[in-house]
Amino acid sequence: MTALIGEAAADVGADAGPPASRTGPPRSPGRRARRARYTLTVLAFLLPSAVPLLLFVLGPMVAAAWISLTEWNLLAPAEWVGLENYANLLTDPETADVFLHTLYYIVGYLPLVYVGGLAIALALNTALRGRTVLRGVYFLPVITSWIVVALVWRWLLNPSNGVVNSVLAWFGIDGPGWWTDPAWAMPSIILASAWKDLGFVMVILLAGLQAIDPELLDAARVDGAGWWRRLFSVTLPLLSPATFFVIVISLINGFQVFDQVYAMTGGGPGGATQVVVQQIYDLTFRYGRAGEASALSWLLFVVILAVTVLQIRGQRKWVNYG
Amino acid sequence: MRTTALAGVGIVAATALALTGCSAGDSSGDADGPVTITYTNFISNGGNEENLQAIVDAFEEENPDVTVEVTTLPYADYGTALQTDLAAGTVSDVFDIEYANFAQYQSNGVLAELDPEDPGAYRQSVLEAYQADGTQYALPSSFSTVVLFYNSDLFEAAGVETPTADWTWADEQAAAEQLTDEGAGVWGDHQNVSFYEFYKVLAQNGGEFLDEDGTAVAFNSPEGVEAAEWLVGKSGTVMPTIEQGQGTPDNDTNLFLDGKLAMLHTGIWLFGAFADVPFGWDIAVEPGNAQQASALFSNAVGVSAGSEHQEAAAAFAEFLTSSDVMVQTRLDAGWELPATSDEAALNSYLTLGNPENRQAVFDSLENVALPPVVAEGQQEMQDIMTEELVEAQAGRKTVEEALDSAEDRINAAIGG
């Protein structure tokens, strides 16, 4: 989240910058002084987010790049090995496994959280009674610690005495072994993750919905468009900037999925939920292979960067900024 | 009789304390004034925090210039925390290590050399386990074994003879089957499906985990298959399945505490936790198959090679692992056994009762199986072994497939 806020602040700064320069080169000393003061003001505003960003994001990234070129067990001094860690990663079948597991998570999670968030946002954008309270309620899981949420979901989905399987049993359904069965472990994590993040998606989409001019929807209604027609032909196209934001952020978070995996399954059973970041964690802190872990971190960074750049390129085709 | 004997031990302890305490206090105090040293541990977590504090208080009383700041972490998080602290250079002056990880830490140079003032106070075999090339790098704080705990009330109700030292796997299995009563939610037996249980049952079956060079595994043998089958076969017959909660933290001890488990393979460190249960219980040496073999665990403390207070830290490490206060505190509390050479003190342990058959603890020491140790990839070896055995337990692989896969993966991890 800190990184997000940092980026947002940087964007604001970038947007605010050009107008000053667009007015052309400064002609009088008074204007130059004003411009310098303006720059200083902008810098002062940027500082609180730039300093932590440099210290806790850029610094570790550079350090990880260096570590990825060494063999380091965290105890003895690191030894230079060049690109060996990357070569090992690209030939290790486990690397493909952890990326496939991560992809499985994203493919399950993204549609679920988007459609769910949209449904709730649409419902709470009506004159529903108690909607203010409901908005707060749906947002609560977002600000709850993953450890707490994961423990609650582990308990709900407990194969032998969990609430979910107990309720299923009333209907004569023999519930699955949720997080103990490799086939169900990832769906369990996806379910819990979508539930937790629904509120975040809802808030973004709700803001997008409220920015839509009601007259457009009224006009569509007068022209005879039904609810679904209005949703697909008016609301969703106008909501596309918010949708774009949600998808970019959710994809980045999806690639970085860790807390819920660590707390719910630890990568098990039998490695079925071993995702990229869980692998990075295990390599570093369980197996003392920090060099390989850092190389994997950079591989993940490159993948996320590529996916994000593709999305930003692709947005021209479907995102409608009105 | 017992009171007098204990009082005698107490007086001896107090005298010895005063003597050792004075010398330690003098040496570390005068040189550099008051110092504060830090100690991070897992050994006191889960019930022995106050016992550890009692030992620390005694040390501080004898060494007024030294203050010890204690941090206690759960065992499950300890290894990660220690590794992170070592990497970051923020490790405590004194910290716990376990035998299985000693070689790795020692060879990476994070442990300071130690020269205990009274090496004779230690049980020699355990002390030597923490030496490399004749130099001491850690001091053993305790040792413990795994024994067979049993609920004698359940045995009596089912009309089954209680376990004896002569039992074999077959006796255990027959009893477990008779004692299991799924309707009443009572299970006959519990043994974790893990690396630590497997290497031991393998030894009980006459097999070897590693080859002679210690660079490749040797468990994929008929003995290994039989041992793995013995371990995973309990699940779903006389022990809960994974779906029923087997393998989740404290599931086994909670079942035992609730009187729903007849037999439990676990460590003697749980004597304290089981002290107040409302049913009769006792222990026996674990049954073997080809031979008896009991798991021996040992914990130790090391002094950080980077500590700024080497002298005070070493004095504390020695006090923590060999002082009479420590010996008596551990024995009274039923904590893990002190690695002391004082046989008289250990003998007092036999008469403490609850469980009655404490002799089994010493009997189990006669045939111990130490965990296999490799120079590189220790944790991976343990994790892979456990993971593959659990695959067999869950029925997703046959025992043979699991051992084949474990053999390939572990050999790759330990560089064999």
Automatic annotation (TrEMBL), chain A:
Residue span(s) of domain ABC transmembrane type-1: 99-311
Keywords noted in UniProt: Cell membrane, Membrane, Transmembrane, Transmembrane helix, Transport
CDD domains: TM_PBP2
Membrane spanning stretches: 40-67, 103-124, 136-156, 184-209, 230-252, 295-312
Membrane topology: Multi-pass membrane protein
Region (Disordered): 12-33
A GO cellular component entry from the record: plasma membrane
Biological-process GO terms, alphabetical: transmembrane transport
Subcellular locations according to the entry: Cell membrane
Entry annotated with the keyword Transmembrane: yes
Presence of keyword Coiled coil: no
Ranges of compositional bias, category Low complexity: 12-25
InterPro entries, sorted: ABC_transporter_permease, MetI-like, MetI-like_sf
Similarity section: Belongs to the binding-protein-dependent transport system permease family.
Protein name: ABC transporter permease subunit
Species annotation: Agromyces kandeliae
Lineage, opening ranks: Bacteria, Bacillati, Actinomycetota, Actinomycetes, Micrococcales
From TrEMBL, chain B:
Keywords linked to the UniProt accession: Cell membrane, Lipoprotein, Membrane, Palmitate, Signal
Signal peptide (residue range): 1-18
InterPro entries, per database record: Bact_solute-bd_prot1, SBP
Protein name: Extracellular solute-binding protein
Species assigned in the record: Agromyces kandeliae
